[in-house]
Design brief:
5-stranded mixed sheet, single chain, globular, 33 strands, about 425 residues, mainly beta, 4-stranded antiparallel sheet
Length: about 425
C-alpha cells in the first residue's frame, strides 16, 4: 500500500474490459489515480468511445471489480477488499440501467395480496375484499370479479386467456376470459381439497400443472387444463363487468381432484415455485426449504433455515434460489451444490419482513423485493451493500411484487394500492 504522504499522487494499473461488443475499447492498461471513482471512469470511457456509434447517445456505465460494483473510489475498494495496489486491477464495465419510474397507481377497496401481468399487458390482482380485478396499463379496471367467499390470497395467469385464484375459503378457482362476448371471465373449475386457507400458487414451466400451498401444511398438484363442459353461458345483463357467479359455481365441477398431495411441512406453507416441470420447491413457517419430486411425491431434499420463511423464487438464468424471512434477510442458495445447506450470500432489507420476492426474467442479477417496512426495492446481487433502486413506497405493508414481464415492476400492499413502475430500456450484457 502507498505511504500516507504519497496518497494524493498514488496511481494503480487497471484494465477496462466488457462483454458488450458494441462498446469495447483498446485492450491496454491505464494508470489511474487511486481516488478514481465511477464518475471519473465514466468520463474516461465516454472520451474513448467518441467517434463510435455511441457518439449520439447519452451513455452511463456501471463498473465492477471481482464481480462487485464500485460504489466508492478505487482506494476505498482496494482497502475494503484487501487488494494489492501493485497488481493490475481488471475493471468490468456494463451499461447502467435506467431506474424504474412510477407510471400508474391503481386504487382498491382492500388489501392487495396477489398480482400478475400477462403478455397482453392485463394486470390481475387479488384482494382481501374477496374479489379479483383485471386492469389495463391505463389504470382502467376492465373487470371486477366475484366468486370467492373469503379473502383472495393469490392469483396468477396460466396463459393470456386463463388464470387461477386461491382463497381463505379453502378453494382454488380456475377462470377463463370470454374474448368473444367481452363479458366477465367465466369460472370454469373449482379445485377443492385443502382444509385451510390456500395462500400461494405456482404454474409449472410447461403450463400443464399448477401447485397450491396452504395453511393446512399441505401442497397439492393440479391439472391446469380447464374443463368448460358444465359451465353455463348466462351473463348478468345489468352489469357484465361485475358479475356474481354463485349460479355458475353450482354448474361448474364441484370437486377437481388433485393429482398429487405433498405432505412434509410441519407448519403452514408460505410460498413455492417450480424448479423444473417435475421438481417443486416450497418454503414455510417451519423454517424449511423443501424440494419435491412431483412424480413420486417424495421430499427429496430439505434445507433447514433458522427463521420463518415468507417468500421464495428461483431464477432459471442464474440457477439461484432466494428466500425472504421474518428477520429481514434475503438468502441465496445454489441447488446444484451437494451441500445445499450452505448459503451462497445474503442481502438485507432495511427494517421489515420480506413478504415477496421475484427474480427478473431477463437479467440474471436483478431481484425485486417487497417488505413490511413499506419498501419496494430493486436489487443487483453484485452490489451486496445496498439496493439498486428504491421504487415508489407504499404507506403500509407490501404484500406482493411482480416483475415477470421485462420492464414492468408491480407491487401491491395493505394500503390498498398497486404501483406500476416501468423502465424505458433494460440492457443485457450480451447485447451487441
Amino acid at each position: 500500500m502507498a505511504e500516507a504522504g504519497e496518497e494524493n499522487e498514488a496511481h494503480v494499473q487497471a484494465k477496462l474490459v466488457t462483454k458488450l461488443k458494441k462498446f469495447q475499447t483498446q485492450d491496454a492498461p491505464f494508470s489511474l489515480p487511486i481516488h478514481t471513482g465511477s464518475n471519473e471512469l465514466n468520463s474516461l470511457l465516454t472520451s474513448l468511445l467518441q467517434g463510435e456509434e455511441s457518439k449520439e447517445e447519452t451513455l452511463n456505465f456501471d463498473f465492477l471489480i471481482n464481480g462487485e460494483f464500485l460504489r466508492s473510489n478505487l482506494k476505498d475498494f482496494i482497502e475494503a477488499n484487501n487488494l494489492l495496489t501493485e497488481s493490475e486491477i481488471e475493471i468490468e464495465y456494463i451499461l447502467k440501467e435506467d431506474e424504474p419510474e412510477l407510471s400508474q397507481t391503481l386504487q382498491h377497496d382492500d388489501w392487495i395480496s396477489g398480482i400478475d401481468i400477462n403478455n397482453n399487458n392485463l394486470i390481475l390482482t387479488a384482494s382481501y375484499d374477496n374479489t379479483l380485478s383485471i386492469w389495463n396499463l391505463s389504470g382502467e379496471c376492465v373487470f371486477n370479479i366475484e366468486g370467492h367467499g373469503m379473502a383472495v390470497k393469490d392469483a396468477c395467469w396460466i396463459n393470456d386467456k386463463t388464470f387461477i385464484s386461491a382463497s381463505q375459503d379453502q378453494t382454488i378457482l380456475m377462470w377463463e376470459l370470454n374474448n368473444v362476448k367481452k363479458t366477465a371471465p367465466d369460472c370454469v373449475n373449482v379445485c377443492r381439497g385443502h382444509a385451510a386457507s390456500v395462500d400461494c400458487l405456482a404454474i409449472s414451466q410447461n403450463k400443464l400443472k399448477f401447485a397450491s400451498g396452504s395453511w393446512d401444511k399441505m401442497i397439492k398438484i393440479w391439472d391446469s387444463k380447464v374443463d368448460r363442459s358444465l359451465v353455463e353461458n348466462g351473463v348478468n345483463e345489468e352489469d357484465p363487468k361485475k358479475q356474481k357467479l354463485s349460479d355458475k359455481l353450482k354448474a361448474a365441477p364441484t370437486s377437481r381432484t388433485p393429482l398429487v398431495t405433498l405432505s412434509g411441512h410441519k407448519e403452514p406453507v408460505s410460498d413455492l415455485f417450480w424448479k423444473t416441470n417435475d421438481e417443486l420447491v416450497s418454503v414455510g413457517w417451519d423454517h424449511c426449504i423443501r424440494m419435491w419430486d412431483v412424480n413420486t411425491g417424495i421430499n427429496s431434499q430439505t434445507i433447514q433455515a433458522n427463521k420463518v420463511i415468507l417468500s421464495t423464487d428461483f431464477s432459471n438464468v442464474n440457477n439461484l434460489i432466494v428466500t425472504g424471512s421474518v428477520d429481514k434477510f434475503m438468502r441465496f442458495y445454489d441447488p446444484r451444490m451437494e451441500e445445499g445447506t450452505v448459503m451462497k450470500s445474503t442481502l438485507s432489507s432495511p427494517n421489515g419482513w420480506v413478504s415477496s420476492l421475484q427474480w427478473s426474467p431477463s437479467n440474471e442479477n436483478h431481484l425485486m423485493s417487497g417488505s413490511y417496512d413499506t419498501m419496494v426495492l430493486l436489487w443487483d446481487i453484485r452490489n451486496p451493500k445496498g439496493a439498486l433502486a428504491d421504487l415508489q413506497r407504499h404507506t403500509d405493508r407490501v404484500m406482493c411484487v411482480c416483475t415477470s414481464k421485462p420492464g414492468y415492476y408491480l407491487s401491491g400492499g395493505a394500503d390498498c394500492m398497486v404501483h406500476i413502475n416501468t423502465v424505458k430500456k433494460s440492457h443485457n450484457l450480451s447485447e451487441e
